[in-house]
Amino acid sequence: MAEFRVPTTVRVAGQPFAVRIVPSGEALSRGVSGDTIGHMDSGHQVISLYGPDVLSTACAVDTLLHEVLHAIIAVHAIVLEDDEELVSRLSPALLDTLRANPDLVAALLSDWEVHEHGPED
């Protein structure tokens, strides 16, 4: 598996969200709970990953996707009663689906046009 490289910016509907890596010691000194490994601040458009220096790559990737989903919900003003439960369940499922389907990922990332097809003879 390729090395995980955290992007410095993630765009959601054209809006840039800075991605910040906050080492575990610094996060604790800022008063971040030891259980918190990520946070999305929609007001400042910042995604923070806390303690990736002590997280597994799989956990860091899942956390980044989790926070990006929160950003998508915020930018698109999606109103949910409990977005944390939705994001917590959707993030690992989406990541697993994308990893298991590289052709799907390639199709989603390609620059393609939709062509209407008529009934085949």
Description:
This protein is an alpha+beta fold and 121 residues long. It has one domain: Arc Repressor Mutant, subunit A. The chain is 42% helix and 17% strand. The protein is built from 4 helices and 4 strands; from the N terminus they run ββαββααα. It has helices at residues 24-29, 57-75, 83-100, 102-109, and strands at 9-12, 15-22, 38-41, 46-50. The protein has a 4-stranded mixed sheet. β1 and β2 (15-22) form a beta hairpin. The longest helix is centred in the middle third of the chain and has 19 residues, at 57-75. The N and C termini lie far apart (45 Å).
Q: What keywords describe this structure?
A:
4 helices, 4 strands, 121 residues, single chain, alpha+beta, 4-stranded mixed β-sheet, Arc Repressor Mutant, subunit A
